[in-house]
Design brief:
- The structure is a single chain.
- The chain contains eleven helices and 17 strands.
- The chain is of the alpha+beta class.
- It has a single domain, classed as DD-peptidase/beta-lactamase superfamily (Beta-lactamase), CATH 3.40.710.
- The strands form five sheets. Strands 1-3-2-16-15-14-12-11 form an eight-stranded antiparallel beta sheet, with helices on both faces.
- It is globular, with a radius of gyration of 20 Å.
Length: 410
């Protein structure tokens, strides 16, 4: 392993103008997630033949992106940005503070909560178990979850993977404010979901559901015979050398998340990762996310068949566009569409991506397969949604040789 610099070496960018309100995230310790099956998947014992990791150091070889980020940092952007073409890093830099109370600068190896970017890890876990011959994405959910409500009988794992199962989301349920701060096991989360009927017939509509991905996390536990975190660690992360990525059990040194209030920037209380479990409970760093993305799309994690299933379009027929946006394909834990069509000037290259937002964090990880370009933007400020999106597309455009976008399309 190489030596990881503990700070960016850059100036301590100070956050600027503030706006808007945020619902404060809750406090809670992660619960231990148990399992309930004696059917065990074999662990990966040897690491794939992976290329050596590049040194973790500042790289600023995209001049237009550097100028944009230098300006954004002076106006409140706080976060980390990495751009790579293949294994060559074109840009790696951090801006702002990881802890405003200390104060402590963000570092190149700072750990961020991934929020919903975690879903691609859960999807890969399911597909890995499929490749290991333990399950199939066509399995009924009730094969792995017992007792199983009658309403769940039509649900296949593929429905959960594509948000087409009809399982109501966590945040749409009564007493969400109390639930989000109360530690819960995977069994408790499953039992809670079982209380509610389906919103539609599985496979007929799409409705984003964190609860559906939590059910998939429980399936991973039952099918593998391991706690969710252990399966991720033993079968996915350790073989890739991703030592700075994991399920948040409260022991990792994760940077503080913030939000903008009329009175100033305020820390968001430590999130209760157990409630978002397999739908959003992971953390990672810039370079671990690069290595994960490279391994995923290079074939080091999944069979060609499973990878193709992950990125194909699973939209039910007649799925409408969302709020006038260009249509996106709903894969397993990822979306695919031309994100660049949402900025000006626009570009149309296909991207495989997911966003993440949770208790003080806003993130976007995207990959352009034709040019083999990866862009990772991680922010520890909940109110950086538009900034994170625009920066990601400015980075992608410059790496692809397109005109540099100046603004979001309105």
């Amino acid at each position: 392993m190489f030596t990881v610099p503990r700070s960016s070496g850059g100036p301590p960018w100070i956050l600027g103008s503030l706006a808007a309100l945020v619902v404060i995230g809750g406090v809670g310790a992660a619960a231990v997630h148990s399992f309930g099956s004696d059917k065990t998947a074999s662990s990966v014992e040897t690491s794939p033949n992976l290329p050596s990791r590049p040194p973790v150091e500042i790289v600023e070889d995209l001049p237009r992106l550097k100028a944009r980020l230098d300006g954004a940092a002076g106006h409140g952007f706080s976060g980390a940005v990495l751009v790579a073409r293949g294994d060559q890093v074109l840009f790696r830099q951090v801006y702002g503070l990881g802890d405003r109370e200390q104060p402590k600068l963000l570092a190149l190896d700072s750990k961020f909560r991934l929020a919903s970017i975690s879903k691609q890890f859960t999807a890969v876990a399911i597909l890995k178990l499929q490749d290991q011959g333990v399950l199939s994405v066509d399995d009924p959910l009730c094969k792995w979850i017992q007792p199983c409500p009658t309403a769940w009988a039509p649900i296949r794992l593929s429905h959960l993977l594509t948000h087409t199962a009809g399982v109501p989301d966590l945040m749409a349920r009564p007493q969400w404010g109390l639930r989000r701060v109360t530690p819960a096991s995977s069994e408790e989360l499953t039992a809670d979901s079982a209380k509610y009927g389906l919103q539609f017939e599985p496979g007929t509509k799409i409705r984003y559901s964190n609860a559906g991905y939590n059910l998939l996390g429980r399936v991973v536990e039952v099918a593998s015979g391991k706690p969710f975190a252990d399966y991720l660690r033993n079968d996915l992360l350790d073989p890739l050398g991703l030592t700075d990525t994991g399920y948040d059990d409260g022991s990792a040194d994760i940077v503080m998340g913030y939000a903008n209030f009329p009175t100033g920037v305020a820390p968001q209380p430590n999130a209760n990762p157990s409630i978002v479990f397999a739908s959003g409970g992971l953390y990672s760093t810039l370079d671990d996310m690069l290595m994960w993305t490279r391994a995923l799309h290079r074939g080091d994690l999944l069979s060609k068949r499973s990878h193709a299933q992950m990125i194909e379009d699973h939209d039910p027929p007649g799925t409408p566009n969302e709020r006038g946006r260009p249509p996106r394909a709903w894969g397993f834990g990822v979306f695919t569409n031309s994100l660049g069509e949402r900025v000006e000037p626009a570009f149309s290259d296909r991207q495989i991506y997911h966003t993440g937002s949770w208790s003080g964090f806003r993130n976007l990880a995207t990959y352009q397969p034709d040019a083999d370009v990866t862009v990772i933007v991680l922010s520890n400020n909940y109110h950086q949604r538009d900034a994170v999106f625009l920066i990601s597309q400015q980075a992608m455009a410059e790496a692809l040789g397109h005109d540099f976008p100046q603004a979001m399309k309105r």
